[in-house]
Write a structure and sequence with these properties.
single chain, mainly beta, OB fold (Dihydrolipoamide Acetyltransferase, E2P), 9-stranded mixed sheet, 2 helices
Length: 161
């Protein structure tokens, strides 16, 4: 499996490349009042607001600065809203992940991946000798998913204030 390698603190992690839509330099974000502290804010992507998570804060670390090699990784996040009023199951929305110290693309042999043997953060998946895989589907708890992607929200157009 090919992964985009980065660090959280002193540890190395990998984001499966098939989940990555685009990698952008870190940029100024609009704050979201009342959002959890790991929600870094909203970015303006060609007039469309995209929520951005700070992956280091999501992992419980205190972030003191944005590094030169920090990046916003855009992924197509599956929403899974399903109700009797909408057929939005399996719909995707763009989600940004602010990650530190992006090292580039690496190959991780599927045979080398093992269960970490401990229930830590739900978004952390199997471990290889050199890094741990991020499970994109487990990034957001249901309450945070509902906050960032309200069920009845229509993608907005126009620049962010």
């Amino acid at each position: 499996m090919k992964v985009l390698a980065f660090t959280i603190g002193a540890d190395r992690y990998g984001l499966p490349l098939q989940a990555v839509a685009r990698v952008l330099p870190a940029m100024a974000l609009k704050l979201i009042p009342g959002a959890p502290d790991f929600v870094a804010g909203l970015m303006d992507l060609h007039g469309t607001p995209v929520p951005v998570l700070d992956v280091s804060r999501l992992a419980g670390l205190v972030v003191e600065q944005v590094w030169l090699d920090s990046r916003i990784v855009l992924i197509d996040y599956v929403i899974d809203h399903m109700s009797e009023h909408t057929a939005d199951s399996g719909a995707t929305r763009q989600l940004g992940l602010l990650v530190e110290h992006v090292a580039g693309i690496e190959n991780v042999a599927d045979a080398a991946l093992q269960d970490p043997g401990i229930d830590g953060a739900p978004f952390l998946g199997p471990v290889a000798a050199s890094l741990q895989i991020v499970d994109v589907a487990q990034l957001l708890a249901p309450d945070v998913r509902a906050l960032l992607f309200p069920r009845d929200a229509v993608p907005a157009t126009g620049a962010l204030a």
